[in-house]
Amino acid sequence: MGFFLLSFFALFFILLLKYKFKTNKIFTDREEMLDAIKNDGGSSLQYADDTLKADREVVLEAVRKFGYALDDADDSLKADREVVLEAVKNNGSALQFADDTLKADREVVLEAVKNDCRALLYTNDSFRADHEVVLEAVKNNGFGLQFANDSFWADREVVLEAVKNYGLALQWASKELKKDPELKKIAKDWRPIV
Known about the structure:
- By secondary structure, the protein is mostly helical.
- The protein has helices spanning 2-20, 30-40, 50-53, 56-65, 75-78, 81-90, 100-103, 106-115, 125-128, 131-140, 156-165, 175-178, 181-189.
- The chain folds into two domains: 15-99; 124-194, no CATH class.
- Helix 6 runs parallel beside helix 8 (106-115).
């Protein structure tokens, strides 16, 4: 429940930023755009003209402050490894806006899931079946267990990490692990951080 509430507020904040800085003005001046990014946290990239959306320095500044700004970047920069790495370090779910070649890049995917377990949703099946990637995702948030290949639902190490930081993750565990006394105790004692 807490994760869903946090997700709701994150989405609300993103929408608020979009409307708060809503303007009819399209930025054409590079310095003015950099100032806007500095002041609004990066969401103003959506108001940049196409030249600025293709400007690597401008986009890097924007995604460092607001990973979702990658959505507004020129397609060529969605395929730029450094730009995408910076975006997913800020918000792992920004991986959804990356070029498919980078969604298949192990280092990029690892950075993304370290930041947001939901980044597993935007990778290919091979990463959802990769022990190291899944372990990093559930260490970030046990909620990520549901996005992993279901073979991990019977992997005690992965389930243990998931349940440690999201007790409700036990619901995705295998029948055998749901009966594990240690896991049941951890899940029972788990309390969301408010």
